[in-house]
Design goal:
This protein is an alpha+beta fold. Helices cover about 35% and strands about 15% of the residues. Strand 21 (about 650-655), helix 26 and strand 22 (about 690) form a beta-alpha-beta unit. Keywords: Membrane, SH3 domain, Transmembrane, Transmembrane helix.
């Protein structure tokens, strides 16, 4: 309005999109405005003019007369209803509306804009010119709708008013849900809201909510005893009808149970001896409606919920929980082991505070003492706890885009280090830990704890989970150990690895070699189990001189239809009778350097002023022929090879075992030492380890391993699949 006067002219706001059109002016099509008030031509993105305003006014008039929207539904369903122009005037709302008013609504909501009533025709409609204008012109109108006083109260800061407005606005968003129900449902809702008993209950609630009560004192916990005393008193009046009725009431089982429950609650919750976090409520208002408090749940929040938990423990099975002390020195359930006794029973939850164990207070006791007490207990065990009411722990089951169907996938990892909880001083409970070795498959059950995950070894009969160090904790541990090593030991280790392959003094990897020159913090590798498939590459690792070349040549000679070796590239000139592509591919130095810069080589090196290298493309060509490429490379090359493209099967050929009484061969000792260092450093990449005590037996075991891996299910890195 232009001013506060009742007769003030109306000011129109168009939010920057309103324009003034001529009588027959049109606007280019487009959906502009609130969806419920859009005209059909707007929804269909057709050119539109003034009739769309009449349609919007018709929707508003429909709402004012009936309290319902003419069109409702989700966005597309709403647009479909508007385009059809179908709406329903339910008799319950429209039964008291005059035919003249209905006629105006129908003409304003005509589907065809050309047939729709105009603004001037609407102003001259009998319903508007008649009853409405007569009501506005009445002398009584100003007594109700007169100009407002000069000063009006400001409700903008009233939280109750703003909250009510918010609820009204929120309810408008749900109008379509209310109007979408059937006539039968509407009748049912009307009958419910008009029910006399419901109104009585609501009145009772209002009275309770506002009624004050005297200061609350701790209730007595002797109701059962007082009932017995009353029964003794009325026994002196056996013929009195009232005494008989009272005796019948007091001796009813349900009433006796009610009195007993009252005594238990009064003693366990409100008595001075009760265990509580905060004092009992003392508000004189039953629902906390005093000026000092606006919390209607004060009674509930101020009372500690003490619970008794009891179960039987007749075996040596651990309970499957670990404890900790919080900042207030309260004993808290730190974790619950998946599959353990407590987890199966569901009696405790993470965060529960333990006050007593079999009547023994846990105060002034250490976690170690309490854990020992739990291990040694047998028979009936009772905990007095303060529940945490936390949500249940999350399980490590995730959804990934699978190969065929959409289903929940459990998380499995391959251990890349050895772990013994007995030797770990950091673990909260040594008995709860899991011992594993390099290569073991572990199912991850829970990762809520940042330092200690819960997991269980795959293919073990024991379904109880145990504690394993998280990757972050293990990396921190390894880094601390590495920092404690002396600089001389690190230099000695680097010097030793610098002696590999003397004939290839300057040997480098094509990609990311620096990663292996630094501390490699390996913990777990996420894996997935796949059905049997053929590995594309056979990688033979081992100390120099352990016999890998002989094994490679033997396999290719025996099985030329299965195995092949990628022919290396070199920059040296071909010798007499040497053919390009038979033993070597001969390339220029510039060409090889260009290919190296393009990361086309798996590995390369120099020897006697010439360069040699294995090109990745030669490996791919072997795969295209359906053969398995055999590689005897440096272990650092696995950084490039361990992908789905090359799908390697990594076999470590260990040095022969040195038994007492053997000749002290210096080369054999060197071989043994280098083999041990390789195994210690790269064992987490090995799929199979074979000790080369006898070459023919080693080849036989290798052939069996290759056949087995191609015919059985396999655990592979998850990066090969997803």
């Amino acid at each position: 309005m232009a001013s506060k006067e009742n007769s003030a002219p109306v000011k129109l706001g168009g939010f920057g999109v309103a324009i003034q059109l001529g009588e027959s002016g049109l606007v280019a099509g487009g959906r502009v405005g609130t969806p419920h008030f859009m005209a059909p031509e707007v929804v269909k993105r057709e050119p539109y003019g003034k009739p769309v305003d009449v349609w919007g006014c018709g929707v508003i008039l429909f709402i004012l007369l009936s309290g319902c929207l003419p069109f409702y539904g989700t966005k597309e369903r709403l647009f479909e209803a508007i385009i059809k122009g179908k709406y329903k005037m339910n008799p319950r709302q429209w039964g008291q509306i005059s035919e003249s008013a209905k006629d105006l609504v129908r003409r304003m909501l005509m589907l065809d804009p050309a047939e729709r009533i105009t603004v001037y025709e609407a102003l001259n409609h009998p319903w508007l010119k008649g009853a409405v204008l007569a009501a506005v012109s009445s002398h009584k109108f100003n007594s109700f709708y007169g100009d407002p006083p000069e000063e009006l109260p400001d409700f903008s800061e009233d939280p109750t008013s703003s909250g009510a407005v918010s609820q009204v606005l929120d309810s408008l968003e749900e109008i379509h849900a209310l109007t979408d129900c059937s006539e039968k449902d509407l009748d049912f809702l009307h009958s419910v809201f008009q029910d006399h008993h419901l109104h009585t209950l609501l009145d009772l609630y209002d009275k309770i909510n506002t009624k004050s009560s005297p200061q609350i004192r701790n209730p007595a916990s002797d109701a059962v005893q007082r009932a017995k005393e009353v029964l003794e008193e009325i026994s002196c009046y056996p013929e009195n009808a009232d005494a008989k009725e009272l005796r019948r009431i007091l001796t009813q089982p349900h009433f006796m149970a009610l009195l007993q429950t009252h005594d238990v609650v009064a003693h366990e919750v409100y008595s001075d001896e009760a265990l509580r976090v905060t004092p009992p409520p003392t508000s004189p208002y039953l629902n906390g409606d005093s000026p000092e408090s606006t919390n209607g749940d004060m009674d509930i929040e101020n009372v500690t919920r003490v619970r008794l938990v009891q179960f039987q423990k007749n075996t040596d099975e651990p309970m499957g929980i670990t404890l900790k002390m919080n900042d207030l020195n309260h004993c808290i359930v730190a974790r619950i082991m998946h599959g353990g006794m407590i987890h199966r029973q569901g009696t405790l939850h993470v965060g529960d505070e333990i006050r007593e164990i079999n009547g023994i207070s846990v105060a002034n006791q250490t976690v170690e003492q309490l854990q020992k007490m739990l291990r040694e207990m047998r028979g009936s065990i009772t905990f007095k706890i303060v529940p945490s009411y936390r949500t249940q722990q999350s399980s490590c089951e995730i959804s990934r885009p699978p190969i065929k169907d959409k289903f929940s996938i459990k998380i499995y990892v391959r251990a890349q280090f050895e772990y013994d909880p007995v030797k770990d001083d950091l673990i909260p409970c040594k008995e709860a830990g899991i011992r594993f070795r390099v290569g073991d498959i572990i199912q991850i059950i829970n990762k809520d704890d940042h330092n200690w995950w819960q997991g269980k070894l795959e293919n073990t009969k024991n379904g109880t989970a145990g504690l394993i160090p998280s990757p972050e904790l293990q990396e921190w541990r390894v880094a601390c150990i590495a920092m404690e090593k002396t600089k001389q030991e690190q230099q000695a280790s680097c010097t030793w690895f610098g002696k590999k392959k003397k004939q290839y003094k300057d040997k480098y990897l094509a990609k990311h070699n620096a990663v292996f020159d630094q501390l490699d913090l390996v913990t777990y590798e996420e894996v997935v189990k796949l059905p049997a498939f053929k590995r594309k590459t056979l990688v033979l690792l081992g100390a120099h001189g352990v016999g890998r070349r002989h094994i490679k040549n033997t396999l290719i000679t025996k099985h030329p239809d299965r195995f092949a070796y990628p022919i290396p590239h070199t920059t040296r000139p071909p010798k007499k009778d040497e053919e390009n592509g038979k033993n070597y591919f001969f390339v220029s130095h510039d060409q090889m350097m260009q290919d190296i810069s393009n990361n086309d080589y798996l590995e390369y090196g120099s020897h006697e002023d010439a360069m040699y290298g294995t090109r990745l493309e030669t490996i791919r060509k072997i795969h295209e022929q359906g053969l398995v490429a055999i590689l005897d490379v440096e272990p650092q090359a696995l950084k490039v090879l361990r992908t789905a493209e090359f799908a390697p099967y990594v076999v470590f050929i260990a040095a022969p075992t040195i038994t007492p009484g053997m000749n002290e061969d210096e080369s054999l000792q060197r071989l043994q030492k280098e083999s041990e260092i390789l195994q210690k450093t790269y064992a987490h990449y090995f799929d199979q380890t074979i000790i080369n005590n006898e070459i023919d037996e080693t080849i036989r075991l290798l052939e069996e391993a290759i056949d087995l891996v191609c015919t059985t299910a396999q655990w592979v890195p998850v990066s090969w699949v997803y």
